[in-house]
Amino acid sequence: MAKFDLHLHSNNSDGSATVKELVEAVLNSGIKIFALTDHDTVNGVNEAVKYVPDGIKFIKGVELTCKARSIKCHILGYNINPDNKELTALIELGKKLRRQKLETRIKYLKDVWDIELTKEELDWLYSRKSVVKTHIANILVKRGLSDNNVDAMKKYLDGCKTGNTKFDGEIAIQTIIKAGGIPVWAHPLGGEGEEHLSEEEFIPKLKTMIECGIQGLECYYSRYSMLEIEFLIKCAKENNLLISGGSDWHGTNKTVPIGRLNTEDIDIDSEKIRQLYKMLQ
Fold this sequence. Notes:
Largest sheet: 8 strands, mixed
Radius of gyration: 18 Å
Number of helices: 10
Low-confidence stretches: none
Shape: globular
CATH architecture of the domain at 3-83 and 181-279: Alpha-Beta Barrel
Oligomer: single chain
């Protein structure tokens, strides 16, 4: 049984581990097939290649934060060329959008909560290649304002309206394809801390995502029960979509263990994603 995990984050986005530490965690867990899919950046994928030994399959990836028509979603891109000009241009646009969002959140903390970040804290945030709520939340935890970053985000940041700073989903999907990649809808029933969609809510959204060009679904996911996974697999097969799976591991920034692909902690053989894996060879 070959273990896989196609959804991992390093500290190039909102994970806690360096790229080298991430690869070490993969090797220690017995995973044989893995992807690095940082949020809106590909900075770590070429570095990861240096640490991957023979016998381990590494997939260069990315996770783009999008809005596909009316649907807020994350799109995973597998086997992308990180040096593709169109992908690079899209990611540069993303940096500008994230900078705007960061500045809105900093102002919100000051205006609403009377929390003013220090110069050192601001310098650290601005020095990062990709800043998300987790980074700000970690600062608040260090200050003793919350027990963990999830609670910190809910209390201090979730009320902040940042406007639409997401990529257009159709453009993101087509950019992934032009970069040689396969676009897969990440955690389609809902991600970390989100209420999961019912079957009735999901089906029309799936129709829209197919129209936008999605080619696969992340059916196996650390926060999904086996019943939810079976439903997603059924939908994927009925619509000729590829089946993927990942833990959405963020190191110590989330409680999910690396390689966890369902809530029951059942081992999933890479044979379950055979069609996708063949395309990633």
